[in-house]
Design goal:
Keywords: Cell inner membrane, Cell membrane, Ion transport, Membrane, NAD, Sodium, Sodium transport, Translocase, Transmembrane, Transmembrane helix, Transport, Ubiquinone. It is globular and about 65 Å long. Helix 1 packs parallel to helix 7 and helix 4 crosses helix 6. The protein is built from 9 helices and 2 strands. About 65% of the residues lie in helices and about 0% in strands. By secondary structure, the protein is mainly alpha-helical. The two termini are about 30 Å apart. The protein has a two-stranded antiparallel ribbon with strand order 1-2. The chain has one domain.
Length: about 210
């Protein structure tokens, strides 16, 4: 029962109470960079989930054979290998999205969420809990990206997933898209608003 509760916590806690973006304040850079549109934000989120989950499993499997003084190098090599695979899959099957994401897929290698979970969790736990931890933290990261991208694309471009959502009749009545929303600083402001709402609801997170 204790093991099941631990596994459940590893999967679910990062979705809210221990979210890597809005609680631990990690992965903010990519949140600024890829959330002007919903599609690349979703693809980035899925990519991080896949890389983090499998990197956690691999590091967990070999954790007892990794010399302590080179463990960070080994972790980087594992993550880099998985990122190359993800990048090649995107180029093969989602070329337009991969162009929008540009170098940011490659920069998953340096995402502090990944290195933090590999060091803090996968190095000390078995493969299954590590897999769940990777899924949970990746999903927590993806949720925030998707929420930020939803508001930025909707209010900044009047579209969602490239499809016009705000009716043309609104524009004829004088509605104008908020061009500020698609600028990088607005991603930080929207993220800040999410953090504010989240901490208002979760009083135990307030200092």
């Amino acid at each position: 029962m204790a093991t099941e509760n631990k596994n459940l916590s590893a999967l679910l806690n990062p979705l809210s109470k221990d979210n890597p973006v809005i609680v631990q304040i990690l992965g903010i850079c990519s949140c600024l960079a890829v959330t002007a549109k919903l599609e690349p934000a979703c693809v980035m989120g899925i990519s991080v989930i896949a890389v983090l989950a499998f990197a956690n499993v691999i590091i967990s499997l070999i954790r007892n054979t990794i010399p302590t003084n080179i463990r960070i190098i080994v972790q980087l090599v594992v993550v880099a290998g998985l990122v190359v695979i993800v990048n090649q899959l995107l180029i093969a099957y989602q070329y337009d999205v991969s162009k929008q994401l540009s170098v940011f897929v490659s920069l998953i290698v340096t995402n502090c969420i990944l290195m933090g979970r590999l060091e803090a969790f996968a190095m000390g736990n078995k493969p299954w809990p590590s897999f769940l931890d990777g899924i949970g933290n990746g999903a927590g990261y993806a949720i925030i990206l998707i929420i930020v991208a939803f508001f930025r694309e909707l209010l900044g471009s009047g579209t969602l997933w490239g499809v016009q959502v705000i009716p043309q009749s609104w524009y004829e009545l004088g509605y104008a898209n908020n061009g500020l929303m698609i600028l990088p600083p607005m991603a930080l402001i929207v993220t800040g608003c999410i953090i504010w709402v989240h901490r208002s609801v979760n009083k135990d997170l307030q200092e």
